[in-house]
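Subject: for your reference before the review

Hello V.,

The reviewers asked for a structural picture of the protein, and I figured it would be easier to keep everything in one thread rather than splitting it across files. Below is the amino acid sequence we used in the manuscript, unchanged from the supplementary table.
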Amino acid sequence: MAKLSVNLGDRGYPIYIEPNFKRLGKACADARLSGKMLIVTDNNVQKYYCDDCVRELEGLCTEVSVHVIQAGEINKSLDTVRDIYRKLVELKADRKSVLVALGGGVTGDITGFAAATYMRGIPFIQIPTSLMAQADSSIGGKTGVDFEGCKNMVGAFYQPSLVYININALRTLPDRELKSGMAEVIKHGLIRDSDFYEYISSNIDKIYSFDENTLAYMTKMNCTIKGNVVEQDEREGGLRAILNFGHTIGHAIECVSGFTMLHGECVSVGMVGAYKLAHKMGMTDEDTVGRIEASLRKAGLPVKAQGMDADKVFDKMFSDKKVKDDKLNFVLPKGIGEVIYCTVEKEAPIREVLTELVGK
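And here is what came back from the structure prediction:
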């Protein structure tokens, strides 16, 4: 269907957008990956796509093995990474061995971190099967795990050797997971491309009915936006911070919920919070806030997370990696398609927004 590139010099890699897994072996061969391969997948994805991927990779390398982890954010931990290390040692994996992340964002982040740290770095590839991972987390090299209730607190920047996206893998996603991933898709339009935002809003029914042409275009645009930002700022020293739109509040809500809310659901609420905060600061108007809320509702996403303690959410925001000198930094919108990164000095408007978002 399409092949894009993330241009990062010797750390660059291709992104394949395909309707199936039939070109996976060739993609790996083109990337000169031929060592032992360990597919890391979770107990949900395993039953759908593991056999297909093993079949395509067999014959390419000396050995293809599978390691199954338990699904869910609660398992995104150092203990899970330790189990991957044990499996790699058992297989006598060396520096030419390849880790294969088959699954959603949790699997991709865990596998990437294991690859970054095993023998100081071995190749890995991303085969994202969730919309969240296809739209966002599989691209850009952010890897890591949660630590003591703090989201993605331990990790590394480590780029994959390739990303292989089978858009039809979305067909087996639970409805709630599919809608959760849509938050990151909408985010890309809100931060960089108002036309893409309009396209998604107008075609949400086609996306949820898995129209192949619509999925292919959506995926291409997501990868283009995310890849372009990463090319300009690989390690989040400046521009790349805009990709965290909705995440400062979203991550805090996710943690306070005990990860009972999905990541995209929390990002959705966080994006509404960013618009509300921008409105209070005179950066955008009330009509735009309402328009964004309506778009998210149309996509089946929440715009509030009622029943939480707003003070706990506020306190948890200070565990965010973007906190500098004990001050909260936000990505805030100037409308649709443009955002800025800024420090919000005053607590009052932040607390007011949190009360609106999570208060009973």
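For the response letter, the relevant points are probably these. The first strand starts at residue 2 and ends at 6. DSSP finds 14 helices and eleven strands in the chain.

Happy to draft the paragraph if you're swamped.

O.
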